[in-house]
Amino acid sequence: MNRFEGKVVIVTGAGSGIGAATARRFAQEGASVVFAGRTASKLERAAAGLDESKILIHTADVSVLREVESMVRAAVQRYGRLDVMVNNAGTAVEGTITEASPDDWHKVIATDLDGVFYGCRAAMPELIKTRGCIVNVSSVSGLGGDWRMSFYNAAKGAVTNFTRSLAMDHGRDGVRVNAVCPSLTRTDLTEDMYANQALMEKFAERIPLGRGAEPEEIASVIAFLASEDAVFVTGVNLPVDGGLTASNGQPPQA
What we know:
Layout: E1 8-12, H1 17-28, E2 32-37, H2 40-46, E3 55-59, H3 65-79, E4 84-87, H4 102-130, E5 133-137, H5 150-170, E6 176-182, H6 191-195, H7 197-206, H8 215-226, E7 237-240
Parallel strand pairs: 1-2, 1-4, 2-3, 4-5, 5-6, 6-7
Helix pairs in contact: 1-8, 3-4, 4-5
Family: Belongs to the short-chain dehydrogenases/reductases (SDR) family.
Domain Ketoreductase: 7-187
Organism: Bordetella genomosp. 8
């Protein structure tokens, strides 16, 4: 498939995990892709083997507005347009409100929420020109709550409602805005969890499909939401969670 031939896509947090899988998926479907993130070496590894004429490696910290604005300018200067903005970069801190610190709070909010706001704000004028779209990466944690992740839940909950609001505000401009809400996915952030077999077995009991996701499985849904196949879809926060939210996270009963 070449659903994105002639399109230009920015993916933040593209150095690993969902971001890397998503950026590669768009490139494989014909797009020119900006691999954006904080570490050039990781971005270069993620983009290895792709058509270099259609790849732009751009280092940026999404928690810094001027760096996000520079990222969007670089994409437009290189390729002449912007069609899809994927706000994926994120971080998490575990702990209760008394265990995690105010600095932890500001770190999570700066990346997971401010970064999405900056990305949407910087990209919107260009997306209005192309009648493009935004896909934010929220989380099932943005649709409910879970233990010891209140800072992350707060940021992702805000992303969920921000996505809905942007869709309402900019639908008349021809810009669609959606979000994916993954549950447990194999990434750098969950590496320790995946190494804990007992924990993973317990978590799998809560997911009807019986396992966590692979990054490529989330990337395929992001690509769908950005494609013409989803041309009448906007304001959706789509769980990509193996059925976790449908089952309310409850394990099967004996």
